[in-house]
Design goal:
With 125 residues, the chain is an alpha+beta fold. The chain has three helices and four strands, in the order αβαβαββ. Strands 1-2-4-3 form a four-stranded mixed β-sheet, with no helix packed on it. Strand 1, helix 2 (44-58) and strand 2 form a beta-alpha-beta unit. Helix 2 (44-58) crosses helix 3.
Amino acid sequence: MITLKKSLLPVLLFCLSLTAFSQELRVASYNLRYDSPGDSLDNWKYREKTVAGLIRFHDFEIFGTQEGLKHQLEQLKSDLPGYEYTGVGRDDGKDAGEHSAIFYKTDKFELLDKGDFWLSEDTRL
């Protein structure tokens, strides 16, 4: 029994030392809801500052967005210095339509490569 305890001690100490090297990574995902003029009080112009404020408050290193139009993403980028994003619009694979973008802090991450894929060749599906 003593031999077993002695052999487990180095393993336990090694495992405990690993926690000293662990890092926290704060990530989130937001459905921005596309900017629709008919949204009345839910219009993007009323939501933009709140969304940016939540991201600043939680200090996310990476966050994903859904349903954001190009101008919404550009507004967020303007409201959140130190972030960059990547993503394309679903209508033309560039700027048109809703985007699923990924924002990241440029002081912590460097974009090395990017790409997109669709689950179907027919974008109507």
